[in-house]
Amino acid sequence: MILYPSVDKLLEQVNSRYKLIALGSKRAHELEQGSLPTIAKFDSVKPIGQALEEIEAGNVIVDPDETEMD
Fold this sequence. Notes:
This protein is an all-alpha fold.
């Protein structure tokens, strides 16, 4: 269960739970591979929590070109 950031706050940034999970997972993998963080200090120590904090801050968004289906 996610306690922080709250799911309600996250859904203000991403309009779908599915997109939220996909975006969080992708960003967490990027952070694990050495991508530079978009926040100076995280409350979470795990990459998935850090990714969700970035999403809540509005620093990571869904790319509409990647979500389109052919």
